[in-house]
Amino acid sequence: MNAPLPSKPTAMDKLITRLIDQSNGWLSFDRFMASALYAPNLGYYSARTQPIGLMASSGSDFVTAPQMSPYFSRSLARSIEEALLQTQTEEVWEFGAGTAQMAFEILTTLGDKINRYVIVEVSSHLKEVQAQQLQAFKDKVVWMEQLPEHFSGVVVGNEVLDAMPVKLIERRSGVWMELGVARDVQLNGLKLDWAPRPTDLSPPIDIPGEHDYLTEIHPQAEAFIKTLAERLQKGVVFLIDYGFPEREYYHEQRSGGTLMCHQAHQADSNPLIAVGQKDITAHVNFTGMALAAQDSAMAVLGYTTQAHFLINSGLLDLLEGASLEEKAMAQKLITEHEMGELFKVLALGVGTSADWEPMGFQVGDRSHTL
Ligand SMILES: C[S@@+](CC[C@H](N)C(=O)[O-])C[C@H]1O[C@@H](n2cnc3c(N)ncnc32)[C@H](O)[C@@H]1O
User: Fold this and answer.
1) pLDDT at residue 50 above 90?
2) What is the pLDDT of residue 124?
3) Which of 189, 162, 171, 193 is CA-nearest to residue 32?
């Protein structure tokens, strides 16, 4: 029987091949993930026409809270309004705005309370999608490729930290290895393989036991927080994402890590196939984010579950008068087994009064668990 013909290499295959060859046959996973997601014109977020949506039938791969229910962004808008007042600032800065559903709701809710809405987005394709969605606010919205040296305002990011490249490390027979990506050269088409090599890297806390243990560390997300802290002159940062404090993240029983891929609303754990065609993501270590902020003189103002944050920000009041269908969708944002408990909100502040507790954390603050 004939062996199946290898498929023709795609432009992404060629790029990954070149990167592996240029790095002497071993490409660190974080560099691989950065290209798989963000390589210009080829990476998942650069090329995918509709990554985010409610159902696979729309051609999307996963859903996020702003897409699920507008009441997510409307509740967040209340906390943003309070933070703008508290910090005497007039701008909102959103990182990774996706389809700009959240920006649209925040701008609609807060109107003239926002002077300028700045979107920092790495995907040029998504910038076009965002510009379309925000036509009605085109005098107020600007896009920036990078953060300026200094800025002030309220910063928001929903599911941005989880989309930042991570390093993969694995304890094998008691020794920590870093996982890279190598080529399996026997085929014409690209076949990728895991390639472990010894490393000095290890998780931020000890993992009890001697068992094999795969996990992630997040230098890029931590560097992002440090840059924010250095450049934000006055303001508050709200970061919303799935994740845990480090004690839970690096629990001895979580021995397979949190890395996941999403395509057509199905999850899988192999980022080395269908490269560029699916999302790759890892959970957030919120303790690492809080420590990175504190190291750069940014204070932790609160940390809680998405359910507590949204309810504290007035979700239930806002839902009065909503239709049953709207209420059912909004319920998913706060139900424990849907998004309510796994998703967390971390608030960081610069130049805010130390005794101010933002409304979103007034009941159920879990900063002590970080
Ligand atoms: C999972 S999507 C979330 C999109 C949107 N916030 C939502 O909730 O629907 C991740 C987004 O973050 C963007 N992104 C990733 N890294 C970024 C960075 N360093 N700066 C700005 N945007 C980034 C991606 O291009 C994408 O728009």
Assistant:
1) no
2) 85
3) 193
Q: Which atom of ligand 1 is least distant from the CA of 224?
A: 19
Task: Determine the Cα–Cα distance for residues 6 and 269; give it in Å rounded to an integer.
Answer: 23
| CA nearest neighbour of 109 among 151, 142, 81 | 81
pLDDT band at 4 (very low <50, low <70, confident <90, very high): very low
Q: Taking the domain 11-369, which CATH number applies?
A: 3.40.50.12710
Residue 243 · residue 285 · CB < 8 Å: yes
Q: From ligand 1's centre to the CA of 221, what distance in Å? A: 12
The pLDDT score that the predictor gives to residue 6 is 55
From ligand 1's centre to the CA of 162, what distance in Å?
9
Taking 60 as the threshold, does the pLDDT of residue 1 lie above it? no
50-54 contacts at long range (C-beta below 8 A, 24 or more positions apart): 51/98, 51/279, 52/98, 52/99, 53/99
Question: Residue 139's CB: how many other CB atoms inside 10 A?
Answer: 7
Domain boundaries along the sequence of the chain: 11-369
Q: How far apart are the first and last CA of the chain?
A: 58
Rounded distance from Cα 22 to ligand 1 centre (Å): 28
CB contact at 8 A, 284 and 241: yes
Is 120 touching ligand 1 by the criterion CB < 6 Å? Answer: yes
pLDDT at 294: 94
Using CA atoms, how far apart are residues 104 and 111, in angstroms rounded to an integer? 10
Return the ligand 1 atom nearest residue 157 CA: 6
- Ligand 1, atom 26, lies closest to the CA of 96
Q: Are 302 and 345 in contact (CB under 8 A)?
A: yes
Q: Measure 122 CA to ligand 1 centroid, in angstroms.
A: 7
